[in-house]
Amino acid sequence: MSLRLSTVILPYRRWSEGSREAWQRAEQLGFHTAYTYDHLSWRSFRDGPWFGAVPTLTAAAAVTDRIRLGTLVTSPNFRHPVTLAKELISLDDISGGRVTLGIGAGGTGFDATALGQESWTPRERADRFAEFVPLLDRLLTEDSVSYKGDFYSAHEARNIPGCVQRPRLPFAVAATGPRGLRLAARYGQAWVTTGDPKLYESGTPEQSVQAIRGQVEKLADACAAIGRDASELDKVLLTGFTPDRGRPLESLDAFVDFAGRHQELGFTEIVVHWPIPDSDFAADEKVFEQIAMEAEAQLR
C-alpha cells in the first residue's frame, strides 16, 4: 500500500503573520492532510501566542481547496461531545467534506487543569474516553440524540443536516492501551500513534520500531475480537516523539529510510511537523519541502 505524507501546523502564529501562507503552502506541496493540535496551550509554547484549533481549521478551509484538514488530537480534557459535534459538522460543511477528527484520551498537560479541575488519573481518562467516543459517533450520525452517562449527557441534541461526509467525518483514534485500541477498532477509520513515550529519552530507533510493531499487533488483536479486518484502518504515525526525534527531516534519504521502516509495519500515513525555528520542531525548510515533494514517489 502506498504511503501518504501529511503535516501538522501548530497554531502559534497570527493568521496575518504567516499562518495563512503555511496552510496554503501545505496544499501546494501536495501533503495529503494538514493537521493542527487541539490544545489550549502546549509545552514550550505556553507563554507565547497560541490559537484555537477549530477556528484555525475553518480559516484554513476557506483558503484551500483540496488538502484534507484535521486535529491531532482532540481530547475530552476541555471538550464536550455535544458542542464539539456542532463545531465539527460546521467545519465539515465549510470545508466541503475535508475534515478528519484525530481524537485521543488526553494527558496531564495544561489542558488537563485549565478549567479548574484536578488532573484525571489514567483510569479516569480512559473511562471518559470510552463514553466520549461512542456519544460523539451518535451525535455526528443521528439527527437527534438523548443520552445520560456517567460523565456526559445530551438532551434532544439536534445535529441537522449532519456531516457532508457520510455517515460522518472519519475518526483517527490515538491509542496504545487496550481500552483505547478497542475504541479505535470499533469506531476508527484510522489509528494514530506517536510511538512508545518511554523510549523517547533513552531508547534507540530499533527499540522504537519494535515497540510500535507491538502496538500494531495489539490493534490487530482488538480488531479481530470484533470481527474487523485491521487492514480497514489507516495507520498514522505522528513523528517527532520517537528516539529519532528530528533526524528524519535532516535529509530526503534519512526520511525515506525512516518512513520505509514504518511502512513495513503497515503504516499508511506519516505526519511531520511544519518547521518552527528555535523549537523542538526546527528543520531546514528547503529539505522539508524536498521531502514533501519527492519522498512519496520513493516509497511506492
Distance between the termini: 8 Å
**Percentage of residues in strands:** 15-25%
What is the total tally of β strands?
A: 10
Q: What general form does the structure show?
A: globular
Quickly count the helices. 8
Strand order of the largest sheet: 1-2-3-4-7-8-9-10
The largest pleated sheet is described as: 8 strands, parallel, barrel
Radius of gyration: 18 Å
Structural class: alpha/beta
Uncertain ranges = none
Question: What's the mean pLDDT score?
Answer: 97
H/E series, N to C? Answer: EHEHEHEHEEEHEHEHEH
Helix content: 25-40%
Name a few traits of the molecule.
alpha/beta, 10 strands, single chain, 8 helices, 300 residues, two-stranded antiparallel ribbon, 8-stranded parallel beta barrel
What can be said about this structure in brief?
The chain is of the alpha/beta class. It has helices spanning 19-28, 53-62, 81-94, 122-141, 178-187, 205-225, 252-263, 285-298, and strands spanning 4-8, 33-36, 68-74, 99-103, 144-148, 153-158, 171-174, 190-193, 234-238, 269-273. Helix 7 (252-263) crosses helix 8.
What does this structure look like?
The chain has eight helices and ten strands. By secondary structure, the chain is an alpha/beta fold. Helix 5 (178-187) packs across helix 6 and helix 7 (252-263) crosses helix 8 (285-298).
